[in-house]
Amino acid sequence: MGTPTLIATLDKVSYMYPRSPEPVLKDISLEIYKGEFLGVIGPTGAGKTTLCLTLNGIVPQFFGGRFFGHATVVGLDTLDHPISTLARHVGTVFEDPETQITATSVENEIAFALENLKVPREEIRARIPRVLEAVRLEGTEKKHPHELSGGQKQRLAIAAALALQPELLVLDEPTSQLDPVGAQEVFATVRELNRELGVTIVMASHAAEEMAEYADRLILLAHGALVKTGTPDELYNAVAYLEANDLRPPQVASTFSLINKAGRAVPKIPVRLEEGLQTLAAWRQKAQLHVQPPTAFPRPRIPSGEPLLSVKDLHHIYSNGTHALAGVSLDIHKGEYVLIIGQNGAGKSTLVKHFLRLLEPTQGRVLVGGVDTRTLTVGELAQRIGYVTQNPDNQIFNATVWDEVTFALKNLKYPREEVVARATESLEAMGLLAERDQHPLALPKGDRARVVIAAILAMRPEIIIFDEPTTGQDYRGAKYILEISRKLHASGKTVIVITHHLYLMPEYAERVIVMGKGTILLDAPIRQAYHEIELLNSTYLTPPQAVFLARALGDRHTYPLLTPREVAACVAGQPIEGEI
Amino acid sequence: MTIPSGEERKVKFLGGAAIDGAPVAYIVVLAAVVAALCFIPFSVILALGGSFPIAQGIFPLVGWILGPIAGAIASGVGRLIGVFVAPHTAAVPAVSVWSAMVGSFSAGVMKSEGKRKSWWLPLTIFFILEFLLFVGRAIVQNGVSPRAAFAGSFLDWSGILLFALPTRTLAARWLRHKNIGVVAAGLFLGTWMIAGVTHLTAAMITYFMSNWPEDVWVMLIPIIPVENLFRCLVGTVIGSGVIAGLRAIGIVKPTEATY
Fold this sequence. Notes:
By secondary structure, chain A is an alpha/beta fold. Helix content of chain A is 36%, strand content 21%. Chain A has a six-stranded mixed β-sheet, with helices on both faces. A six-stranded mixed β-sheet of chain A has the order 16-17-18-13-19-20, with helices on both faces. In chain A, helix 4 (106-116) packs parallel to helix 6 (150-162) and helix 6 (150-162) runs parallel beside helix 7. In chain B, strands 2-3 form a two-stranded antiparallel ribbon. A two-stranded antiparallel sheet of chain B has the order 4-5. In chain B, helix 2 (59-66) runs antiparallel to helix 3.
């Protein structure tokens, strides 16, 4: 094996955005080698996005600010060469494909950047099928990008970046908005580009399981500094260290780390599911696997009485003919914590929008508290149902946090004292009272989500819907929001959560509704639903690694375990405590 | 602050899509906003059979955000699109586009700093000439009484005065103020003066086209200032939110921005 060739270098790079008092990148020195798959991990605010933007010159050329040190890509200093020149060598894919896609057809989208760089027409025509094949989107040339699924859109964004034939492809959280199978598709595509075409990959991601599987090397950023570099085995092995840095290791690593802690020696903590399953199989083969079957879990509460929310034979057909809901019926009772899951486009958001009358049924009825929503105004429903959308920025439009939280109350003509009391109470509950005079957009994304939740809490709704609340949040941010949902649930509210992050939910949800192609595929307690692997796969979902490990524990029995702690306790022969 | 160990580099924007220091993306967005606001009418122009668009309230804001040249382009492009997609608010299309460009350009030169600190002077002379042609034609050629002409052109000469006096730089300073209340005051004052000279630019041409009689001058005396108050209100409300938002998200500021 020859000496690896450098493709990019960072030498003592520090950077401050125009208004930031502290550097967001601090003295980073890093060498990126041709053909490697480099993963960038770190909690929110660690500087991952800024690092990605440094590699294509957008930082600092677009943002301004102060830049220290030297960054080079294919030998070009990123401060001495225009972004357009660097773009020929560095392709960039961002978190939300919607923000990158501008054209009205797949082929036009790919041609756009090439046309801007004056690539000859014949060459553009030749490149389009090549890149579509590389991302497995052949046959979609004439389609409108809106007709593609989330995973396909992200692959289109990758194809558009690839068409420039970059030596380096930088991807910033490219899978955070995708369902698990969409995310797998993107990771698999990126790995193929890396292995077969030799494209160097730099990817920032919170997806620990996938990073362990696909990356050659990882760097860990914390507070803008590069604190650790190593292979996925080296970094994800250090479970305690990662958790101290607000990072989530792959569940398989957590599980074996807990087993190790419980006294059963694990010589090498596996970081990939396959390795974990092999370890369990090897233990069994050597008769070293003595599973302590879990005692019976508490039976799920069977709700009774009149449902708070009732959906009867609901159909919804969008104006473009898409049949988004096809005969959905369900009842949700007061005080339930319901998780709705399903692939992108399964109809989850369409369903919950009917609860608020943001969409009208094409057929069927929705009843809230026994009253048909068609007889209620959106304003009346908003007082009973709070809806936290996926992107908090879409819900924020006032100039201060206080104005945002009091906006609806003032519009509903609540007395001034009541407005002040409710807003103060909900801001206190969200830990945002000190930020009341700040502009919401000046706050970090996690805090902006809390502003939206505070505004909703001030309305004191009976039902609160969180639509993909953990997208773009690191582990700590995601847990923070889910802890809020737990508190709301404990205070008697009915909570409905939509998410793709199944691994986060076992500690919170009681009931799972699995949707696919506009129908309900399964409505079951979480311990049952998560173990319906084939059914989940049919709607492009995959359960957390702990479920696969649990299923590998017994020859004949299937233990309904959901978390690394439960699996570890079972393997270590300890009673399961503190979960569910 | 942590002291970085690397050598500090000079940060510059190399090439790329920018006009006069304003990214083209900003120009496109603001042109789109102007075009969208052209759909909403707020007053009817007597005799010309069209209406004013609410977009007139943000021509100055566009200049303050993008600077004189990029601002004029954004407003001009937005208004040009508006002429076609919303003809009901464009009584005389060419005048609508021209005055939009003059409005944003004038707003953009208000801060009087750097190499462009004298740009306001020829502009002021240009406005004075426009005023002389406008009111002079009314009084000398069309026999409108001087009293009616001066009262009817109150907005126009108040705009010139505020633009020529230090009130121009005062408004620009207020626009840069930390306190959003002071910014709002700057928006109101600035919108009044810029809408005044913009109105003059449009009125001078349309008057040469239609030579409205003294009765109309008299009728316009109370209407024009009220209309302009509405423009100021639009500029202040939208401008306060936009400037507060731009500051909050820390997005890169165009080189010639005033806010």
